[in-house]
C-alpha cells in the first residue's frame, strides 16, 4: 500500500516532467526552422513532420498529466498540480502552429535583410530558453532567465518600428502585411506564454516530497 500511495505516483509524475521536457526540446528545434523561413525558403515537409511530432509529444504529456492529476486525490504526498503546465505547453504549441502558417514564404528581400539579424536573435534566445526550461524540468531546477528573450524581441520590435517610420510597410502586399503582423503577434504571445512557463518551472523546482523525506 505504501508503494502504491507514494512511489508509483512519484514515478508517474516524473514521467510527466520528462514528457514535458521532450516537448519543449522539440518546440525549440522547430522554432529555429520556422523563423528561418521568413528569410529563406522553408523546408515544408521537414517542418510538417516536426509539427506532427510535437503534436504527438503534447498528447503524450497531456495523458500522463491527466493520470498524475487523478493520482493527487489519493496520493499521501502531494505534488504540484500539472494542469497549469499542460495549459502553457498547449499555448506554446499553438504559437508555433501560428508561426508556421505565417512562414509559408520568405519576407520581401528588403524586409528579410533588415529583420533577418534581429529575428535570428529572437529565434536563438527563445530556442535556448525552451531548451534550458526543459533541462530545468528534468532536474527540478529553477527556470532560466527570460531577459535575453525579452531584449531580443524588443530589438526586433524596434526594427519593425523603424521600417514603419520609413514608410516601407505601406508597400507590402496584403499577404506580406498579414505575414508580418501574424509573426509579430505570435512572438508577443510566445513571450507571454514563456513567462507562464517560467512560473510553472519555478513551482516544479521544489524538491519532491520523497527527496525531502530522504534528506531528513
Could you explain how this protein is built, in words?
With 216 residues, the protein is an all-alpha fold. The relative contact order is 0.15. Helix 1 packs antiparallel against helix 4 and helix 2 runs antiparallel to helix 3. The chain has seven helices and no strands. Helices cover 79% and strands 0% of the residues. The chain has a single domain, classed as Methane Monooxygenase Hydroxylase, Chain G, domain 1. The N terminus and C terminus are likely disordered.
Put the structure in a nutshell.
With 216 residues, the protein is mostly helical. It has seven helices and no strands. The chain has a single domain, classed as Up-down Bundle (Methane Monooxygenase Hydroxylase, Chain G, domain 1).
SSE inventory with pairings:
Elements (H helix, E strand, L loop, with lengths): L1 H35 L7 H28 L11 H20 L6 H31 L7 H19 L8 H31 L4 H7 L1
**Tertiary shape:** elongated
Mean pLDDT: 86
Question: Can you tell me the number of structural domains?
Answer: 1
CATH class: Mainly Alpha
Distance between the termini: 22 Å
Named at the architecture level, the CATH assignment is Up-down Bundle
Number of strands: 0
Low-pLDDT ranges? 1-9, 209-216
The helicity comes to over 70%
* SS-derived structural category: mainly alpha
User: What is the CATH topology descriptor?
Assistant: Methane Monooxygenase Hydroxylase, Chain G, domain 1
H/E series: HHHHHHH
Radius of gyration: 20 Å
Number of helices: 7
**Oligomeric composition of the shown chains:** single chain
